[in-house]
Structure formats: structure tokens, C-alpha cells
Amino acid sequence: MKNKKLVVAVAAALTAASAVPALALENQFTGAFTTFFDTGNFASTGVVEKNSDTANYFVQRMRLGYTAKADDHVKLVTKFEFDYNYWGNSSYVNARGGGGALGADTVNMETKSIYLDLNYPSINAKIGMMPNTDSLKGILFDGDMAGVLLSHDYSNASVSAGFFRFNDKGNVLGDNTEDMVSLDAKYNVSKNFKVGAAYYFIKDNRTNSTTVDASGDVAGVDANGNPIFLDNANFVPASTVTTKNDTKVHTLGLNAEGVIGPVSLSGFAAKQFGDLTADMDAKGYAFNVAAKMALAGGTARTNFLYVSGGKDAFYVATNGGDFATEGGQFYDSEMIMLGRDKWATTIDNALIYDVNNFNEGVIMGTLGYDYDFSDKISTAANVGFAATAKDTGVARHEGDSNYLGTEFNAECYYKVSPNVIVGVRGGYLVVGDYFAKGSDNLWDMKALVNYSF
């Protein structure tokens, strides 16, 4: 009797379970592992000086993406990052990019993005922390950001609208924030020609606190080495000054790409207006043109970029932290030291870190050539020239010119398998007269391995 009851109970449980609709997820994994040896006199410090030291170090990064796809309309997209900023840096700590020393045992997982992707015939919606880049080749913003992005594709056009919250600081959430609204549209004029227009509005009214140390006539020091001030008319106690940003920047942009004969062209123009501060108008502007064409079995490339400076400095989106700018990298330059290196991880330095460039702007031209010797061996060579658009008297400008320098670089990669490459990349930069007389020219060499899946 007991056995019969058990059989009945099991049967009932199986029947109940079968009545619940099953959610069959498609699990998708993507990622990349990269490590390289780097040596040079600039990349690790970002300093241009005389008698610069030569550094050598190893860098390691793994990026892991996981997508939980419910069906053709719904998926959850995530991406995580694990860095050793350089081998030997630390162990047994909880630190971004730590764990590269003997023993490892470090919590260093970084969350890059987590967002819901809803894709229906009438609309696509991305909701959450997502990667997002402007239609100006990334000179305004290019990073991970939290928000909502709605888009729709037509037969010959596409439109999108988004809201993003970059920062939220203050006792009342939503009161002191940095937010962006974006509108973007593209239209296919023909099979070979596409035009686009974009509008971005960034508002920043965050509060910032700055502590001013005490000052006055010093009578001595305490046990901790802190100064003891005389209580007289010259004594000014320590204080905290709180200021509030008043940034309202509108950016209008036009972009185009197309093919004319053997030449592929692309470019953009952008203009800013509004307020950088309560006392300073936003008047930045920028334009770019790029071209490439097949030549002698390879591909020749060229790029020109102008970004205004001085009183017309171009505003770039910021996070207000240690890694301030989230745009302006302009990786299209294919530079190593003149512009930011496409292989750089946390150790990331360049003469032009972002196109705002200390409010001095950028004038840059580059030439490049790609050539594949076989399906396994690929090479590229580049030369770049750059100057500031306007001298604003920043501390690093110790020379008598706006010319930053000329870089020559080359790279070669060997495809070990469809997913694994090994390669070398090196460059030499002749420092311009923008920097102090006698400053060393810059150089950098990398040997790397990359596995993508």
C-alpha cells in the first residue's frame, strides 16, 4: 500500500511539473584573453622629459561576455572584465586590476555592462548599463553607461532616442546629476551613400566639495608631523568649499559615409552651444574626414581631425573620477603614443588622451597602409602628425610651438589558429617643439598574444 502511495505521489509531482511552461534559454559565451610584454620610455608614465627611464612590464586582460537568450525577441547581455594591470603588482587584496603578484588570490572582477535587449518588429529597447558610442567616431562619448535606448530600423533609415544617467551625487537622489539625452538618425541615400544627424544634450549640476587646508604662522609640529599654527590674525582655519556644476551642453552633429569610385569616404562635423559653466559658453566645434582605398594588394588609409581649443574648447563627457573622460579617444588614428593605443588596458597614456586635450584641442593627420601577406600574416604601418589647436598655457607646454610630434609605427600579426594571434607592435615618436627643449623622443614596443572566442 505504501509503495502504491509513493508511486501515486511521484506521478502527481511529474504531472504538476509538466504543467509549468519551461523556459529554454540559449546560453551564449563570448570573450577574449590578451596578454603582452611592453617596453618603452613613455607608455607606463605618460611623461615627456629629458633622460627618461625605460620601463618593461607584462599586462593581462580577460573579457567575458554572457548572453541569456530567451527567444528572438528577448535576451540579457552581460560583460565582465578581469585585469592584471601588470604582473607582480599585488596579491591577497581586493583591488581593480590587482592580483598580479605571487599568490594572486584577489577579487578583481569588473562589471562592464548588464542590460536587457528587447527586439520587436516595431521597436528595439536596450535597458540597463550598456556600451554606447556617439555618431562622431567617439569624440564626445564612448563608454559604458546606464540608461534606456530605443531604436527602430526602416527599409532605408534608422532612428534612435535615449536617456542616460552618467552620475548621481547628493543627499537627494536625482537632484544633483549628470544626464544625457540623445537623438540619432541615419538615412541611406543610395546603396553607396549614407547620411546622418545627431543631437546630444548633457546636463551636469553635480556638487563638488573641495577641502582647503589651514594656513598661517607655524609655531611647530605635533607628534604626527602636522603643523601647529599661531592663533593670530594670519591664521585661517581649514574649510570645505562646496560648488555646483552648471553645465548644459548641446552638441549637433552631421555625419556621412559613402563610396566614390575606388575610394571609401567617411566624416563628420559637430558644433556645441549652451553653457560650460555659469560664466562660460559652450562654443566647441570639430570636423573629420577619412578615406581608404585598395592599393597594390593592400589598403591605404588617411584621416584628418580638427577639434577646437581655447575659448572654443570642445566638451567631452566625463565621469568626474580618476578616469575622467569617457570619450575623445579617436582610435581611428591607429597611433600608439600620439593618440591612445588600441591594445592598451589600464596603463593607458598618450600625448592626446582625449580630443579636448587640456582645452587646447587637436589638429591631427594620419596615413596608414594595411597589407596581408597571406591568410595567416597581416601587417600595417602608420604615420601621424599632431598639434594643438590653441595654446592655453598648460603646464606641460614648455616649448615655443604648438606642434606635438610625429609618430611612426608598424605592426605584424600571425594567425596561429582561427581564434589565436601572436604579434608585435612598435612605434617611435619625434617630439615636437611644444615640449621642453632637449626632451627625449618617445618609443614603445609590444609583443602580444590574443585569443578570441
The poorly predicted ranges are: 1-20
Number of strands: 23
What sort of overall outline do the alpha carbons produce when their principal axes are compared? globular
Number of continuous helical runs = 1
| Spatial separation of the terminal alpha carbons | 57 Å
Q: In terms of structural class, how would the helical and strand content be classed?
A: mainly beta
CATH topology: Porin
Number of domains: 1
User: What is the second-level CATH architecture?
Assistant: Beta Barrel
Keywords: Signal
Protein name: Porin
Signal peptide: 1-24
Write a structural description.
The chain is mainly beta and 453 residues long. It has one helix at 2-19; strands at residues 26-40, 55-69, 74-84, 109-119, 124-133, 142-153, 157-168, 177-190, 193-204, 207-212, 218-221, 227-229, 239-244, 247-260, 263-277, 280-281, 285-295, 298-307, 362-372, 377-387, 403-417, 420-431, 442-452. The chain has an 18-stranded antiparallel beta barrel. It is 4% helix and 54% strand. The chain is built from one helix and 23 strands. The longest helix has 18 residues, at 2-19. It has one domain (33-452): Beta Barrel (Porin). A hairpin with a 4-residue loop joins strand 2 (55-69) and strand 3 (74-84).
